[in-house]
Amino acid sequence: MSVSIFTNEFFQKHGKPDLSKTPNYGVVKLDIGRADLVSARVELSAGVGQETTANVYNKNLDDIRKVRMWRIPLNSKIAQLMHKYAIEINDIFNYKISAIQDIQYLEYKSGDYYKTHSDINTELGSTRKISISWVVDDDYEGGDLKINYGGEEVVMEKTTEQLIAFTSFMSHCVTPITSGTRKVLVCWISGESWR
After folding, report:
1. Which of 11, 157, 178, 185 allows an S-S link to 142, with CB 3.0 to 4.6 Å?
2. Range of the domain at 137
3. Phi and psi at residue 38, in whole multiples of 5°?
4. In a domain, 53, yes or no
5. Does residue 12 fall inside a structural domain?
6. Which among 165, 159, 164, 162 is positioned nearest to 182, based on CA atoms?
7. pLDDT tens digits along 30-52
8. DSSP per residue over 128-182, as a string?
9. Where is 91: in which H helix or E strand?
10. 87-123 pLDDT, tens digit each
11. Which residues pair with 97 in a beta bridge?
């Protein structure tokens, strides 16, 4: 099956890797400016995005995730921020990237979770290179983002001051929320399929 790779002019201009350097695989933490956090929160509170069902690729795994989800439009302020951060992050990863595949706003309430999974799957999911997670409200308990990194399950710090980016084939999970609401923006930066 052939998969069409999303491309956009922004990434064609800014997303080129340095082919003289080796790509990096792993986890990157990127500091977020307070103004960008406020801007994202304002846009979310204004109701940006379309609520939709949070499906999973494999229907046999319907119990893998419990969360509310909104798709964020690619013409939003949040999308502009994600484009900017994607380029900064890829300066470290050094991958061949071509577009933001999807931006989602997720709300995990008490009892919600996402069991261990990888963001790579078939069809368009095969083009994911970088996964980004940006907590925009850290007033909750539980809901730890755990990433399997170097053979260990590493718990990421809960902070609105950094976003976490990782190579999309790394397995990860969000533990059940015990109180409050975990509010997070996630997106995937795509490129050529992994081979």
Report:
1. 178
2. 25-191
3. -60, -45
4. yes
5. no
6. 159
7. 999 999 999 999 999 999 999 99
8. EEEEEEEEEE--EEE--EEEEETTEEEEPP--SSEEEEEETTS-EEEPPEEEE-E
9. helix 77-93
10. 999 999 999 999 898 999 999 999 999 999 999 987 7
11. 191
Supply the DSSP symbol for 100.
E
Q: Is residue 45 part of a domain?
A: yes
**How many helical (H) and strand (E) elements, i.e. helices and strands, does the chain have?**
3, 14
| Side chain identity, residue 81 | L
| Cα distances (angstroms) measured from residue 58 to each of 88, 111, 152, 173 | 32, 22, 26, 16
pTM: 0.90
Mapping DSSP to helix (H, G, I), strand (E, B) and coil, where does residue 103 land? strand
Contact of 22 with 100, CB cutoff 8 Å: no
Residue 57: give its domain's CATH number.
Answer: 2.60.120.620
Give the count of beta carbons closer than 10 Å to the beta carbon of residue 168. Answer: 24
Instruction: From residue 183, give the alpha-carbon distance in Å to each of 5, 160, 186, 195.
Output: 29, 10, 10, 34
Torsion angle, alpha carbons of 53, 54, 60, 63, to 10? -110
How many structural domains are present in the chain? 1
Name the DSSP class of 4: P
Report the amino acid identity of residue 53.
T
